[in-house]
Amino acid sequence: MSDPKDQTIDITVDFSGGLEILFSNEKHHELSVPAQDAEGKPANVGFLINYLCKTLMTDPRADLFVLGGELRPGILCLINDSDWELEEEDAYVLQPGDNILFISTLHGG
Amino acid sequence: MSDPKDQTIDITVDFSGGLEILFSNEKHHELSVPAQDAEGKPANVGFLINYLCKTLMTDPRADLFVLGGELRPGILCLINDSDWELEEEDAYVLQPGDNILFISTLHGG
Amino acid sequence: QRDTSRPLTEEELDRYSRQMIVPGMGKEAQLRLLNAKVLIIGAGGLGCPAAQYIAGAGIGTIGVVDGDVVERSNLHRQVGHSTSRIGQPKVLSLITHLKELNPLPTYIAHTEHITPLNAADLISGYDLILDCTDNPATRYLISDICVLLCKPLVSAASVQTSGQIIVLNCPPTPQGLLEGGPYPPCYRCCFKKPPPANAQLSCGEAGILGPVVGLMGVAQAGEAIKILASNLHIPPAEGEERRPVEPTLLLYSYSLTSLMGPFTFRALKMAPRKKSCFACGEGSQERLTLEGVKRGEPNYEFFCGLGAGPKQGVL
Amino acid sequence: QRDTSRPLTEEELDRYSRQMIVPGMGKEAQLRLLNAKVLIIGAGGLGCPAAQYIAGAGIGTIGVVDGDVVERSNLHRQVGHSTSRIGQPKVLSLITHLKELNPLPTYIAHTEHITPLNAADLISGYDLILDCTDNPATRYLISDICVLLCKPLVSAASVQTSGQIIVLNCPPTPQGLLEGGPYPPCYRCCFKKPPPANAQLSCGEAGILGPVVGLMGVAQAGEAIKILASNLHIPPAEGEERRPVEPTLLLYSYSLTSLMGPFTFRALKMAPRKKSCFACGEGSQERLTLEGVKRGEPNYEFFCGLGAGPKQGVL
Ligand SMILES: [Zn+2]
Ligand SMILES: [Zn+2]
């Protein structure tokens, strides 16, 4: 068996409402992310957000995605199309095949 | 083990575009259907269509759903949101969890 | 005034027959529409198409709120105005168009922007509110007043190639009530905090495609008409079986480089009324009142951080 | 005539700036729209909202085809007409409205129904066709001519509380070509046979809700604008990477008794061009020709079984 530290989980991550600009202007990403964080705990959505900042973000303006260590106000996180508040927010542990969607709240009209 | 003739498969069947009128005006149905046809072959979509006529249809006008032994012209069958012509049409063998959607072609405007 | 059993006039039958014969409509539902009062806040890219279908359906009283005048740069998407009415107040321009479409409804022009001072007076006279505005401060204000006055709210927004729509506070539930829920969310339940000012982009600054905002506006009219026709805004009677509360945010992602596909529309499941919500949650009656709003509490401009730095080109 | 590099006029910049600044648009895409010619067939519940946004976006030449006159019972959903224009040809009424919205495009009125005799002449002068008609015979005719003349087709339909939209034949592919595919489908690839006449229901007989057909019409304008702005209707050059063909039928299921939810919009994956298709498949060049259509082959009225018995109240 491989070292648990090298194991990965396959998930999809989507950006919408303009956030895709921060991630090479791609709305849909198929990713293999580490199954554990640095401390050996199962990877959760909080871990994923930091991981995306470090590995997937192509725009230097990280504060448009994460602010004060948290998801920037005005961004919703949806876990398999449900508001993450219906799950355990950033403590939700990633499962293979999960879809994580980040959308920016719109105000124009 | 139970007799294979008594085994069932859980699927969902949806009707749209007006066809729901023939099925108690319900668009969404969760069904347990026989896993085999009378000859002991695995249940396919062709079997399902006849089964729906016999067990689910509440309107006497069966010819608005089946005509000459086939799905009435102007009705599309979608297997898991794909045109059944991308699968094997009525020969497609039902799998647990499948969604079968029947829609009527619209022409108004 | 709200006569629910009168016969329809010949002209009403003629105008509304095509919708009255749709299964689930009928005379009773049409009379509900004829007796209903709808307030459309914003006469722009959302409000114009929404108003066309609200008026066409025969909603009896239609109020329109907007303080702007028509500009030439509006006309690619604000299809209720016209070149000859450039410079006119948007509300009057739109009502001119609506009267031509359907002269039967009563149209009420509110040629001013909605503010904490006038919001309750504007909203109190109507049965259902459409938020067709263009900035976060106004969106939080409208939702708060709808919670306080028990009005259902159909809220949509759109910028560039994206759109969002959600029905809020429907059926309206007394402020602070959580027992016996889940109850429908308000705008703050879904969108707790606005983005920082540098991440708020308007259609004027960031651009907008006409059909994107247009589709959201038409969808708003669709939700409003069903709510009023089917009485979905009337809280269920004691013992009546309650429809499950399944708040849905519809996301519209238009792509300029690919045809409509599986991700064009996404229905997102939102949480119901939240215990922690400032406006409708536990103890909210102490935090949010009609008098407070008029006095400037909460301070919507401050909350939404207007003027807090340069914009950075991301929504 | 098709100047792809001229500067925009001050009025054009003013009118189109809000869509030009959307990422992915810009001056080049706007010039493509200004040089494009779009034919809207049907000036009813689909054609009216579609035309508003097609005109607003600055499509250079806009043709409208319809042989009907405006009736009062149209106005709840046909928002490009007006009470004062009841009795006028729909095409002239709609163009009056569009000119008020945007006087810059060239509008061409075709105040007649499309028929096998005039279809090729009507369609040949345009770059992209919107099928906004209301009966199956016309829908098969329009698709066949679009196959024969290599025109992309944005087709939508709506009755009661349901709507459908699909982009067909885009990019257009020579009739009968299958090698090197998959290629985009035509209307017959998707809908091989019409329903029997007793199962075909029109908006006039079965009813229609305004926002349902309106939403489909706006969506048609959205697809048309992206196709023309991004040149999606131009077949890829030799060696150019081809977008995968993923034909999608979007289904809109409006419910009068429940709010928008997960099943309101469904994107259905359709098959690409079919070898067996009468119009575009193998050997189709022998079966379907421009001369044949003019001579009455195929017979669209017979194929769609008009007048073949009483209607039964199901779509
Ligand atoms: Zn709330
Ligand atoms: Zn074909």
Automatic annotation (TrEMBL), chains A, B:
Keyword field contains Cytoplasm: yes
Keywords: Cytoplasm, Isopeptide bond, tRNA processing, Ubl conjugation pathway
Cross-link (Glycyl lysine isopeptide (Gly-Lys) (interchain with K-? in acceptor proteins)) at residue(s): G109
Entry GO CC: cytosol
Residues found modified as 1-thioglycine: G109
Cited SUPFAM superfamilies: MoaD/ThiS
Subcellular location as annotated: Cytoplasm
GO BP annotations listed: protein urmylation; tRNA thio-modification; tRNA wobble uridine modification
Keyword Cytoplasm: yes
Task performed by this protein: Acts as a sulfur carrier required for 2-thiolation of mcm(5)S(2)U at tRNA wobble positions of cytosolic tRNA(Lys), tRNA(Glu) and tRNA(Gln). Serves as sulfur donor in tRNA 2-thiolation reaction by being thiocarboxylated (-COSH) at its C-terminus by the MOCS3 homolog UBA4. The sulfur is then transferred to tRNA to form 2-thiolation of mcm(5)S(2)U. Prior mcm(5) tRNA modification by the elongator complex is required for 2-thiolation. Also acts as a ubiquitin-like protein (UBL) that is covalently conjugated via an isopeptide bond to lysine residues of target proteins such as AHP1.
Family classification: Belongs to the URM1 family.
Full protein name: Ubiquitin-related modifier 1
